[in-house]
Amino acid sequence: AQQKQENQIKAIRSFIAQGVDAIFLAPVVATGWDDVLSEAKDANIPVILLDRKVDASPDLYLTAVTSDTVHEGKVAGQWLVDNVGDKPCNIVELQGTTGSSPAIDRKKGFEEAIAGHNNFKIIRSQTGDFTRTKGKEVMESFLKAENGGKNICAMYAHNDDMAVGGIEAIKEAGLKPGKDILVVSIDSIPDIFKAMAAGEANATVELTPNMAGPAFDALDAYLKDKKAPPKWIQTESKLYTQKDDPMKVFEQKKNLGY
């Protein structure tokens, strides 16, 4: 939907008009869904949320299949706390799409993890819109603003694509990502494992792509006997670091089509 909520709403209304049996939705932002979800409910079309949640009445969707995105942020922040120790650490943050639930939650979880550790400080935070290109642009601006990056201890990115873009910016600034500036992010896409194998990224928290399986299982049970699933089906979040044989994991994920 080109990162546009209005495109998603148009698509849902088109699906309703077609009389589909069910709708899967990965909402680009958390708010503004009440009207169109009510229309789907009135048409007796179950809606399943994938990857992200919405700020709407739970009776407007069948279930949400997501990770615990607050937990993901906490895991990323805790890795930084555990590996930096008591040294002063200025952090720059590449946020996801403004208003999206992963961006809100991953920021919240990370801040909870570093809270109480006075040596950690988020000095700059800006959206990179979950894209590699924007992540690079934002990191370039952070580096210029912070003495060429010499004032930056770590980069926290709400997803790996922005992290990969940020890594490119760090290298172009003449610094070594993973060493001069620690890199921690979320998703565990294949390219971040290549970066870890090269020593250019330090840690990633997996957002499993296996959401369609649980979603179809829930939908199948509902359509067969109207058995309502729990409102939230949680997926696993696993931490990977340079110690986890990154190229082996890269090949595994590549072979699985991630």
Query: What's the total count of β strands?
Result: 10
Order of helices and strands: HEHEEHEHEHEHEHEHEEH
Strand content: 15-25%
Query: Looking at the structure, what is the overall shape?
Result: elongated
Name the assembly state.
single chain
Main pleated sheet: 6 strands, mixed
> Helix/strand/pairing class, anyone?
alpha/beta
* Main sheet strand line-up: 5-4-6-7-8-10
Number of helices: 9
Helix share of residues? 40-55%
Q: What radius of gyration results from the CA coordinates?
A: 20 Å
Kindly report how far apart the N and C termini lie.
Answer: 20 Å
Spans of 5+ residues with little confidence (pLDDT < 50)?
Answer: none
Mean pLDDT over all positions: 95
Describe this structure in words.
There is one protein chain. With 258 residues, the chain is α/β, with parallel strands linked by helices. It contains nine helices and ten strands. It has helices spanning 5-18, 34-42, 69-84, 101-114, 132-145, 160-172, 190-197, 212-225, 246-255; strands spanning 23-25, 47-50, 63-66, 89-95, 120-127, 154-157, 182-187, 203-206, 232-234, 239-241. The strands form two sheets. The chain has a six-stranded mixed sheet with strand order 5-4-6-7-8-10, sandwiched between helices. Strands 1-2-3-9 form a four-stranded parallel sheet. Helix 3 (69-84) runs parallel beside helix 4 and helix 7 packs antiparallel against helix 9.
